């Protein structure tokens, strides 16, 4: 029951200044219901790895399989939450959450039910008709999480989702995503440079170490207490 399977993945960026090896022979296996963090120092290739799994960037060589399918480009099977708020500013909170459901022509009654469910999960029922500019940073990230989960993705991909938040909000968000994971058990791939955050949140950690720009090895750590 592998959900994300990454085999011998390599990424080289070519530019006029020369080649940058962003990742070398990375192997990762994320099982159903696992909360996996990818940690490592800045520049070790965490974002690159996540972008390739998201289908937003193309590997130089190697294989990425999401739930038995080789991926080619982005897809609704992967929900995404990034560091910078990516809500549509001209849409209300509810319409942001509904966005993917509308695209997929889900019946409107069902759209409402799903939206209500996730507004409750993120505790923003009262902000249903608010616009992103009326929300704090933490609230916006909660909406981004709801929007990603509303599509029932195979996996939830998160790239430093709480890094831009103040410490208190960040702690609140960590508790919330942990609670969501414990209740709904989504499969999560979570990129962070913060090892404490990874230990607090995850059921498994991959550590990417690096000489500049080059991933040397991955160490899966099974945390017994999650
Ligand atoms: P991390 O997320 O761990 O900080 P990144 O994945 O952002 O690391 O970057 C890994 C390496 O690849 C770095 O050396 C970075 O400068 C380089 N890199 C990332 N994106 C690009 C790009 N679009 N073009 C060239 N080099 C890149
Ligand atoms: P993060 O630290 O969150 O991984 P970065 O600041 O490394 O983010 O990268 C932000 C964006 O800049 C990414 O889209 C990445 O592809 C691009 N980028 C990073 N390093 C380079 C580089 N050396 N040359 C060109 N683009 C880069």
Give short descriptive properties of this protein.
226 residues, alpha/beta, 4-stranded antiparallel beta sheet, 10 strands, binds adenosine-5'-diphosphate
Description:
Its EC number is 7.6.2.9. It comes from Variimorphobacter saccharofermentans. Residues 4-226 form the ABC transporter domain. GO terms for molecular function: ABC-type quaternary ammonium compound transporting activity; ATP binding; ATP hydrolysis activity. The protein is of the alpha/beta class and 226 residues long. Helices cover 32% and strands 32% of the residues. The chain contains six helices and ten strands. It has helices spanning 46-54, 93-103, 108-121, 137-150, 167-184, 195-201; strands at 2-15, 18-31, 35-39, 61-66, 69-70, 78-81, 155-159, 187-191, 204-211, 214-222. The strands form two sheets. It has a six-stranded mixed β-sheet with strand order 6-7-8-3-9-10, with helices on both faces. Strands 2-1-4-5 form a four-stranded antiparallel β-sheet, with helices on one face. Helix 2 crosses helix 3 (108-121) and helix 3 (108-121) crosses helix 4 (137-150). The longest helix has 18 residues, at 167-184. The mean pLDDT is 90. Bound molecules: adenosine-5'-diphosphate (ADP) (2 copies). The site of one adenosine-5'-diphosphate has 3 residues, from loops.
Break the fold down into its secondary structure elements and pairings.
Blueprint: E1 2-15, E2 18-31, E3 35-39, H1 46-54, E4 61-66, E5 69-70, E6 78-81, H2 93-103, H3 108-121, H4 137-150, E7 155-159, H5 167-184, E8 187-191, H6 195-201, E9 204-211, E10 214-222
Parallel strand pairs: 3-8, 3-9, 6-7, 7-8
Antiparallel strand pairs: 1-2, 1-4, 4-5, 9-10
């Amino acid at each position: 029951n592998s959900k994300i399977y990454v085999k011998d993945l390599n990424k080289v960026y070519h530019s006029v200044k020369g080649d940058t090896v962003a990742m070398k022979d990375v192997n990762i296996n994320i099982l159903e219901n696992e909360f996996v963090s990818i940690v490592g120092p800045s520049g070790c290739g965490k974002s690159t790895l996540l972008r390739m799994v998201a289908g937003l960037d193309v590997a130089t060589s190697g294989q990425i399989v999401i739930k038995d399918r080789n991926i080619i480009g982005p897809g609704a099977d992967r929900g995404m939450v990034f560091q910078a708020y990516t809500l549509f500013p001209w849409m209300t909170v509810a319409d942001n959450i509904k966005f993917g459901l509308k695209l997929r022509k889900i019946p409107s009654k069902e759209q409402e039910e799903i939206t209500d469910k996730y507004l409750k999960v993120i505790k923003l029922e009262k902000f249903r008709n608010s616009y992103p500019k009326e929300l704090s940073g933490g609230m916006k990230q909660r909406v981004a999480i709801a929007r990603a989960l509303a599509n029932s993705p195979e996996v939830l991909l998160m790239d430093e989702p709480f890094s831009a938040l103040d410490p208190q909000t960040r702690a609140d968000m960590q508790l919330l995503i942990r609670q969501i994971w414990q209740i709904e058990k989504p499969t999560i791939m979570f990129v962070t440079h913060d090892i404490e955050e990874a230990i607090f949140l995850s059921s498994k950690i991959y550590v990417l170490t690096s000489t500049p720009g080059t991933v040397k090895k991955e160490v899966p750590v099974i945390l017994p207490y999650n």
